[in-house]
């Protein structure tokens, strides 16, 4: 990955020590948001800053209708609430955003979203006014950045995605000629200490969230939904995506988005995912990585516990690119534990021939992403039967090293028969009996079709339209 695609880790300053003098007062310098908290009478948060009860609330006017853009007022409100205040977007009110906004200056701010923050579907405007990220040609309408940012409440961020779903019909995100860029609903960049809780993320045009160059970001008790009201289904509406992130946490959250539920991407480490429900998704994926030529990517230190995965394409997945012009890297120290996977095409899969790459190309130019120290513990449920009896499909690239991959107490069944574990090129085995993909392919079902179809890409059947 070239420097323009955010290579490497970025140095972040350590949190400042917090010391609180005795008197309780604040100064708002002519609306510039220069709150100087002298003490926190009620208490402090995880970062040593005052809690909600000790903050002065700021409000902005709500929109009169869906054409009433209050972007300028919202920017002013953010500035006023910055450095120790609280911006309140009130319940029952709608706040329409029709201009791109740069909130990269934030420091010690609470945003209480109880109303609806809704983006316009003015595609003509947003196609020429956005913040751009070279990684998979990503764009957004708002950048959240800075330090100590808390967004909470009972409200909604609404991406107003239907017009985007209609306009993108028939297109693909990874098509090099594609210039129809769709905004990501929520993006952090150059941010440290970000907490989001209680918020509903609705109908994002593309990925729901994207954390870039961010340290310590946590989502709790959130809900994600992306759905179409016609035949033009949402595409690439992942729940979570990351790039160059250290400290990524998702807990007590529900997602129904039609693509990856959670998908940490290059250079993400220290991941914790727990008590998450995913319906109609492409599962909890580590990757994809290794996409860009000559670039080292990695994902390390992930713990995924107590996740329910229903009616999906994949469940627990590791994915890496293969091909002539791709990168290299590693996925290391990943634990999936206590998963309930139901009616899912591929409950557990290692795919190193991603994305829609022909099998002969993968053989000639195999993935160079090494996979090690991976555990699947206490996994139960059923496949959909779409891939015959194969319920675990671990196919390591011949160009990579895959070792210390273990399956423990996994009980997965197929409606077409006893579940089969397929593994290729895994050093030392996986701890349970498995067959090679070649052996699995020889087995015939009652319909005469192959029992094990191999991975998504070999048969060019991958429905995952990128990322």
TrEMBL record:
Entry's localization field: Secreted
Comp. bias (Acidic residues): 454-467
GO biological process: carbohydrate metabolic process; cell wall organization
Region of interest called Disordered, as start-end residue ranges on this chain: 437-467
Major subcellular location class: secreted
Record keyword Hydrolase present: yes
One MF annotation (Gene Ontology) recorded for this entry: polygalacturonase activity
Keyword Transmembrane in record: no
Position of the signal peptide: 1-19
Keywords annotated in UniProt: Cell wall biogenesis/degradation, Disulfide bond, Glycoprotein, Glycosidase, Hydrolase, Repeat, Secreted, Signal
Catalysed reaction equations from the record: [(1->4)-alpha-D-galacturonosyl](n) + H2O = alpha-D-galacturonate + [(1->4)-alpha-D-galacturonosyl](n-1)
InterPro entries (alphabetical): Glyco_hydro_28, Pectin_lyas_fold, Pectin_lyase_fold/virulence
Stored PANTHER family: EXOPOLYGALACTURONASE B-RELATED, PTHR31736
Name used for this protein in its record: galacturonan 1,4-alpha-galacturonidase
């Amino acid at each position: 990955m070239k420097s323009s695609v955010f290579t490497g880790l970025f140095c972040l300053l350590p949190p400042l020590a917090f010391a609180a003098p005795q008197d309780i007062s604040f100064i708002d310098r002519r609306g510039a948001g220069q709150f100087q908290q002298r003490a926190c009478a009620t208490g402090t948060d995880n970062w040593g800053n005052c809690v909600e009860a000790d903050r002065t609330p700021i409000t902005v006017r709500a929109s009169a209708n869906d054409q009433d853009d209050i972007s300028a007022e919202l920017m002013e409100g953010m500035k006023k609430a910055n450095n120790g205040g609280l911006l309140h977007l009130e319940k029952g009110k709608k706040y329409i955003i029709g201009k791109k906004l740069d909130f990269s200056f934030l420091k010690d701010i609470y945003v209480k979203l109880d109303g609806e923050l809704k983006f316009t579907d003015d595609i003509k405007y947003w196609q020429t006014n956005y913040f751009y990220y070279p990684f998979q040609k990503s764009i957004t309408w708002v950048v959240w950045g800075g330090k100590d940012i808390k967004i909470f409440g009972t409200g909604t961020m609404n991406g107003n995605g239907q017009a985007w779903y209609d306009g993108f019909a028939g297109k693909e995100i990874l098509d090099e000629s594609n210039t129809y860029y769709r905004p990501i609903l929520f993006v952090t960049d150059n941010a440290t200490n970000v907490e989001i809780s209680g918020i509903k993320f609705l109908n994002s045009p593309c990925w729901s969230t994207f954390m870039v160059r961010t340290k310590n970001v946590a989502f709790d008790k959130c809900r994600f939904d992306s759905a179409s009201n016609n035949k033009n289904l949402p595409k690439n509406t992942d729940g979570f995506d990351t790039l160059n992130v250290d400290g990524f946490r998702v807990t007590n959250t529900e997602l129904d988005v039609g693509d990856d539920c959670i998908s940490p991407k290059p250079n993400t480490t220290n991941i914790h995912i727990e008590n998450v429900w995913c319906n109609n998704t492409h599962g909890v994926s580590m990757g994809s990585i290794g996409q860009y030529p000559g670039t080292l990517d990695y994902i390390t230190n992930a713990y995924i516990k107590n996740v329910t995965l229903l009616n999906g394409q994949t469940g627990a997945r590791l994915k890496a690119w293969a091909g002539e012009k791709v990168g290299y890297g590693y996925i290391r120290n990943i634990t999936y534990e206590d998963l309930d996977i139901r009616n899912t095409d591929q409950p557990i899969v290692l795919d190193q021939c991603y994305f829609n790459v022909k099998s002969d190309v993968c053989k000639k130019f195999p993935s160079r992403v090494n996979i090690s120290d991976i555990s699947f513990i206490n996994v139960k449920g059923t496949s959909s039967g779409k891939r015959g009896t194969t319920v675990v499909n671990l196919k390591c690239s011949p160009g990579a090293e895959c070792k210390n991959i273990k399956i423990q107490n996994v009980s997965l069944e197929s409606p077409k028969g006893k579940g089969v574990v397929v593994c290729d090129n895994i050093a030392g085995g996986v701890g349970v009996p498995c067959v090679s993909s070649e052996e699995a392919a020889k087995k015939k079902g009652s319909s005469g079709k192959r029992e094990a179809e191999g991975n998504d890409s070999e048969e060019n059947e991958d429905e995952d339209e990128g990322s």
